[in-house]
């Protein structure tokens, strides 16, 4: 996606956020969810609230919100309830170390 595409996507109407799972709609809906809320949980809940393909929209929105708010922005009760967390946590730590040392 080039800058013009990103600008067109960002300039969309908030009423167009539908969460259908179509690539452009998913991106627009996810960006809208991030920009219209003030925290990770609110963002994911907003994305789910669009309906339709909720898992796709919430996944993309959660990824973007994760970059904005960091792991500390994800509610502790959500992180603590994840199965396999003990396997994922070391990977997360290695990825953070690798890509934040630059």
What Rg do the Cα atoms give?
15 Å
Global structural class: mainly alpha
N-C termini distance: 25 Å
State the order of secondary-structure elements, H for helix, E for strand: HHHHHH
Query: How much of the residues is beta strand, in percent?
Result: under 5%
Number of helices: 6
Helix content: 55-70%
The main β sheet shows up as:
none
Mean pLDDT, nearest integer?
A: 86
Low-confidence stretches: none
Number of domains: 2
Question: Any chance you could write out the topology, listing elements then pairs?
Answer:
Layout: H1 3-10, H2 23-35, H3 40-49, H4 54-69, H5 76-80, H6 85-100
Helix pairs in contact: 2-3, 2-4, 3-4
Could you explain how this protein is built, in words?
Helix content is 67%, strand content 0%. The chain has 102 residues and is mainly alpha-helical. The chain has 2 domains: 3-69, no CATH class; 76-102, no CATH class. The chain is globular and about 40 Å long. The two termini are 25 Å apart.
């Amino acid at each position: 996606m080039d800058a013009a595409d990103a600008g067109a996507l960002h300039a969309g109407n908030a009423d167009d956020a539908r969460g259908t799972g179509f690539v452009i709609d998913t991106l627009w809906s996810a960006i809208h969810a991030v920009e219209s809320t003030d925290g990770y949980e609110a963002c994911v809940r907003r994305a789910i609230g669009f309906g339709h393909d909720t898992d796709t929209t919430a996944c993309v929105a959660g990824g973007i919100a994760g970059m904005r708010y960091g792991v500390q922005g994800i509610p502790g009760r959500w992180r603590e309830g994840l199965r396999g967390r003990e396997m994922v946590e070391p990977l997360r730590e290695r990825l953070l170390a690798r890509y934040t040392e630059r």
